[in-house]
Amino acid sequence: MKIYPVIMAGGSGTRFWPLSRRNRPKQFLALAGDAPLLAATVSRLPPLSRPRDTFVVCGPKHAAAARRMVAQLPKENFIVEPCARNTAPCVGLAAIHVAAKDPRGVIAMLPADHHIGRPPAFRDALAAAAQLAEAGSIATIGIRPSRPETGYGYLKLGPRLAARAKGKKRLVAHKVERFVEKPDVVTAARYLADGSYLWNSGIFVFRADVILDEIRRAMPVLGEQLEAIRRTLGTPNYARTLKRVFPDCPSISIDYGVMEKSQRIAVVPAEFGWSDVGSFAALSDVRVTDDLGNVAEGDALVIDGRNNVVLAGKDRPIALIGLDDVIVVDSGDALLVCRRDRAQDVRKAVEELGRRGREELL
């Protein structure tokens, strides 16, 4: 079975300001190792799939940088969106490109900005999901929760199915009973104790023809727009049609627009050291910490403090004394200081800088 990975690299990563900027979004940063997240996403795929079958979807501002970062991919495998319209149009656009090569090709939609601690286990789970997809299901990978996390969506497990990754150990799969919104901490603790809920990883695997059928059923307007673009693939009219049609596509996630309405969803439960690296607070899950849970990198010093994230620049040291659960990030031209439990609110600083016209910091 041939798998066509499609890596969604169009996000802005405003929760990682001041490290992330418009021209250097989160997926271009080395947040969880030595390699940028996008490059790490591509590098963990072989031997399950080949670079020539791997696609990247990104915006026009980031296309050149993405091509340089993952130069092993053919130039024609970079799908450039004229503007950001969330993941449903992104998935549909990728699907018509893959379908032009292989109408029943199995697509693995992968976020560009996640961390995977155990790539072999990830490939096993992806292979099992691909088997389900080849048979006509829309498969997702659900992460077994390790804590009552409130920052993730959840999946409720339905009846059990069986799946086998070719040449690997047998893996279990389930129907998805329903998608669940991000819970409060009490509800998340109940989900953890229940045992029948998984974190929604945002990884989906499906045949190109199946997802296009589901889009036409659940989102007929988007289906018509994608068909208008599809008819021009490989012609001189493609770029003009894409620029005209795509900005009018509904801006909605594939989860809300299609997956929550579909009766074909199956899930492979898995554990492979997954993190969505959603904010600076998540860095303690993917970077080295000291005995008190501190991430201190660059010329950073933490004294009598716990569970801090301190990222110092090259030109000046940062010393943190007697503080717990604080985030300090120095990018050279800007300094971020916030409580760890407010890490999700870093985007508010970006919004406020935009209102103040501080374009040089965005």
From TrEMBL:
Q: What is its EC number?
A: 2.7.7.13
Record's keyword annotation contains Transmembrane helix: no
| Domain named Nucleotidyl transferase: residues | 5-287
**Keyword Signal found:** no
Q: Which domain of life is it from?
A: Bacteria
User: Which reaction is this enzyme known to catalyze?
Assistant: alpha-D-mannose 1-phosphate + GTP + H(+) = GDP-alpha-D-mannose + diphosphate
- Residues of the MannoseP isomerase/GMP-like beta-helix domain: 300-353
Q: Which Pfam families match?
A: ManC_GMP_beta-helix, NTP_transferase
Question: What keywords sit in the KW lines?
Answer: GTP-binding, Nucleotide-binding, Nucleotidyltransferase, Transferase
Q: Name one GO biological process term.
A: GDP-mannose biosynthetic process
| Protein name, per record | mannose-1-phosphate guanylyltransferase
